[in-house]
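Case study 2.
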Amino acid sequence: MINIEKREFNIGKHKFTNPLMLAPMEGVTDLPFRIMCKGMGADLVFTEFIASDALIRDSMKSKQKMEIVDAERPVAVQIFGQHKDAMIHSAKMIEDSGAEIVDINYGCWVKKVVNNNSGAAYLKDPERMADMTHAVASAVSIPVTIKTRLGWNHDTIMIEKVAKMQEEAGAKQFSLHCRTRDMGMGGKADWSWINVVKPNISIPLILNGDVKTPQDVFRAFTETNADGVMIGRGAVGYPFLFKRAKALMETGEDPGEPSVEEMFEACIKHLDLNIAYKGESRGFIEFRKHYSGYLRGLFGASATRQKLVVAETYDEVRQILDEYFEYLKIEDRLVPFEHKDAAKVTCRRT
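Prediction:
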């Protein structure tokens, strides 16, 4: 087993060693999900991205995205926008809220964002990007970090220059999603760029893109010079990814899929957190996107998910889950899981 080299760094007052980070994902990385991932081993969690213009207008939805609790610290609150005054004002609001880090989104690829000269649109003008980072970093005392992509498209990649300019502008961490803007979420993330960028900066460089399994995490640390790994879609409905990856890194062995009982306990805990934070109606409706992850690979999961997504009350959801769990125990269903692109493994007995 190849040992992972220790990569230690500080962001502000927080020290990290080979950290695993939860990537900011719109509609996913809300407070309950961040708490779940933190409890499973995530070293640093990021909020959903927040529009700076909406935040300074006192938008309730935007302010709620910024709410944090001690159980998830340290937390990075991510913002995006095209107006310098709004970005500065938002960063100050984040600092006043008690968050440890302000993160700037320079990587969102969706048309609504880039057409507003935000997100990945900054990749077309590295000087403008550096100017924005410098303005925000100069306005607050907490660290400012950034997340971006390789470039607008493959013909305009100049990520080494962008990274160097960002460090000079005051960024304390550089998170790189190893796709271009025109790729969206398609194609394969090209991790080889990590080793191209690394010699150009002294701030931490974080790898993001196609980290779906514990083995992906291990490869990211052994095959690239990344200082940390950021996990996005691989953790949706599956916060166990952090726990498994940590175990693999520390012991050289992947403990494998959680037991059915562990999956159900985590699912219910996450659902309860969602309801406690958002209220029963909104809480269990917005939780529906997580059922696929928590029930993935279990016998009869598809039919159970169909019931869950039309359930109208918390009690009905609990009844469906409890009855399904009892069914699995009685039938002793040990069926193969398939975690994204990973090989099939067998679920442990409950």
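The CA atoms of residues 110 and 184 lie 8 Å apart.
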